[in-house]
Each structure stands twice: as structure tokens, then as C-alpha cells.
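call fold target=Bcr/CflA family efflux transporter
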Amino acid sequence: MNQTTGTKRLQLALLLGSLAILGPFTIDMYLPSFPTIVNEFGTTASLVQISLTTCLLGLGLGQLIIGPMSDVLGRRKPLLIFLSLYLLASIICAIAPNIYFFIAARFMQGFAAAGGLVISRAIVRDVYSGKELTKFFSLLMIVSNLGPIIAPIAGGGILYFTNWTGVFIALACVGLVLVIITSFKLEETLPTEKRVPSNFMNVVKNFGSLLKDREFTGYALTQGFIIAGIFAYVSGISFVYQNIYGVSPQVFSFLFGVNGIGLIIGSQLVGRLSGSISEKTFLKFGLILSNSAGAILLVAILLKAPIVAIAIPIFFLVMCIGIIATSSFALAMESQGHIAGSASALLGVLPFMLGSITAPLVGIAGEHTAVPMGITILSASFLALLSFYGLVQRSPLKVEVAKSVNY
């Protein structure tokens, strides 16, 4: 296994992080624009939230298709194709004549952005394994987690000078820069002899073998549910902060961006201490913390507490993403080197598919209540906890290993 070190390692992390950041930018950068888009199109909050849902569906479906495609064609060529499509989709979003056209364009944009997400993770598995995989992924998370910090602040800043269409013009520029960087800086990491045959049934078989792997499925569902809860937060928090608490788009962007620091703290805890504390221990800690913070958040919402009582548990909820995503990814991918693209696709698709369900739920009671958001977040955290203890901890393989050790 070719494991790069030093300067090359940092350069690779910056490049792959820039690709992975496309997802957070696509999701988060237009969040401060939600109330503005409602007024611009003369539509409802629910329809604007559906534009987020369709983007999440595109991100999920795109990973299912692009991940296996990269196992067949290599990483570089599919990445360039879908980055170019992302550039086009962003321009279409900016010129959308109505909310329905906009919703469709957001699906296309999410689908194209999936290329950066799934292929960047597959490249990590191509190059690293073992503890180095965990450490590098935590480094990648630092770079990619700058997205949730920068994106909403940038979106709020753009709104200060122009309207919501400027956000999507900026995203088109991001896509263009990534096309150029990838063209000149990214080398192919999957040799021809390691690629899987171009056969649809082989793709189905690979997905089937992954889903039959109880531990892999447990890790995937654990990560999927916890991130789905955060998507409920992403979908509803702009209305909560701006409509209920009356903050400006710029203040909202700051509050939203601060949570990105939590993401970095969480992922760095795992990366820095993985040599002395196991990934599974971190995963358990993250799940307990997320459920505790979710319960506190729901109580604060029901009591109509001040904004600080909402912001603090949300910070810890988002920090759990850094802990859980880093540890669960490393544990799930460790034994999947031969089909890393397909494994990365499944790990990526579940959060977005589940998030496409949770995102619209937060708006079912209107724009002036946060109760559905709190219930959805806590429920998602609890389902993540059940997935881990129901599938991973009770894995038959683990029972056999334990018996042999005791013997």
C-alpha cells in the first residue's frame, strides 16, 4: 500500500478536502437565503425545504451510481465529468424562473456534487489503511469541515451585496476552480489491474455483499441516522433563528458557522487519540453525547428557552458528527479495500437518503415552531444508537472472536 507522508500527505488532504467540501457548500451556502427565496418565488417554506430534500436525494443517488463507476473507470475521469456537470447545474439554479424549476435544478446539482464526496473517500482508501486511514480521514475532515463554517458565512455575506442568485453564481465559480485543480493536480489512484469488471450484476453483487455484512451495515446505519438528524437541523435552523428569534442573515450565518468548529473538534479528537483510544470507544461516546444533547435541545425548545439554550446543545450535536463520522467510516471501510468505491457510496448514500426524509419533517407545523425539529433530531440520534448496539455489538463474528479469546 502506497502511503504518502509529510508534505504530499498534506497536499492530498487539501485536494481531497476541497472535493469533499463541495457537499457542505452545496447544502449550507444557500441556507441564509431561505426566507428570501420564499419571498422571491412567492412560495412556502415547505417548498423551499423540498429544494434541500431534492439536493440530498441527488447527493445520495449520485453516490450510488458514481461510487461503483469509479471502481470500474478509475477515480479521475468520473470526477472530472461530474465536476463539470456541477458547474452547469449551479448556473441553472441561478437562472431558475420558478420554485419547481429550481427544485429540479437542485437535484441535478446534488447529483453532480456526489462525485466529489464519494470519490474523495474512495481515494483515501486507495492510499491508506489501518490507523493511517483513521488519521488521514481525520485530517481530511478538518479541511472538509471548514465547509459548514465558511459556506453559511459566505452565503450571508453574498446576500449583503446581492440576492440569492449570487450564491449559486459563487457555487458555479467553486465548481470551475475544482475542475481546474483536479485536471492539473490529481493523479489516478486506482490502477487498471485493481479495477472491477464493467458488469451491472457485479455492482449489484458488491452492494449485496456489503449489506449482508452485519457490522458494515451497522456502522452505515449508525452514521446515516446521526447525520440525518443533523440534516433536520440544517433544514429548520434558518427559520428557527431568523423567524422565531429574529436574528439577521449575517448573525444566523455566524451562529451556524460556529458549529463547524464543533465538527473539527470531534474529528480531531478521534484522529489525534486513535493510537491510544479505539475508534469504537469514540463511537460509543459520540452516540451517548448526541442523545444527551438531543434531549436537552428538545426540552429547551418545549420551554421556549433563550437562543443560547438552543445553540449550546446544537453545538454538541454537530460535534458528534465529527466523532461519529470519522470513527464509523474508518471501522466500516477497513475491510473493504477491493470495493472501496461501492462501500464509500453506501456509507455516503444512507445519510442523504435518510436526510431527505428528515429535512421536510421540520416544516410540517409551519415556520414559527421548532418542536418538529427537536423531535426529529432526538429520534434520529436514538435510532443511531439502536443501530450500533443492535447490529455491531451483537455481530456473530464478534461473539466467535470473544469465545476463542476466552478459550
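return ok
The CA atoms of residues 94 and 240 lie 25 Å apart. The chain has one domain: 7-188+206-401.
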